Amino acid sequence: MSKEVAQQIFKEVLGNYPTGVTIVTTVDAEGTPVGLTVNSFASVSLDPLLVLWSIDHKVSSIKAFTEGGKFAIHILAGEQQELCKTFASKVDRFASCDWKLSENNLPVIDGVFAVLECKTFQTVEAGDHTILIGEVINIEKLEKNPMLYHRREFGPIPESFYSLVK
Q1: First vs last Cα of the chain: how many Å apart?
Q2: What are phi and psi of 31, to 5 degrees?
Q3: Cβ distance 107 to 147 under 8 Å?
Q4: pLDDT tens for each residue of 130-165
Q5: pLDDT for 71-129, tens place per residue?
Q6: Is the whole model's pTM more than 0.85, yes or no?
Q7: What is the DSSP letter of 92?
Q8: Is 64 left (phi over 0), alpha (psi -120 to 50) or beta?
Q9: 112 with 77: CB under 8 angstroms?
Q10: Phi, psi of 69 (to 5 degrees)
Q11: Which residues contact 145 (CB under 8 A, 6 or more apart)?
């Protein structure tokens, strides 16, 4: 199997794996907020509280995330599709949402399902990405339902999923 074919099948397989959707934010060396949409997010450890996500080496803000020492992971609410698209685009991302700097000097977006403020615990080079492992130093959670990403589509978790846990 050629590399190109394997990459295409890989994308198709993982595109069929449902995930949540996050926006990760930090500030750059000048104190300017930066952020991007990320679905490569997972929990790692309960003791200490660790999470991970990965960033493509081609992303223009990579140094802000890999050298900044801290970041905030926003787990998006089901109705935040436009915010998800905005942070995946090249526009002025923070102009289109309400946000503030936290006590940890991290940009925190209003109205998301949850925010995990993290200090960088470890970075790992892995192929064309860097994996960032963060130690959670603050958690905020709203009474909302999170977003789901599946087959290049995103939106609220279907109501039928909730009947399964009752």
Answers
A1: 45
A2: 90, 10
A3: no
A4: 999 999 999 999 888 888 777 777 777 777 776 655
A5: 999 999 989 989 989 999 888 899 989 999 999 999 999 999 999 999 999 999 999 99
A6: yes
A7: -
A8: alpha
A9: yes
A10: 85, -5
A11: 77, 78, 113, 156, 157
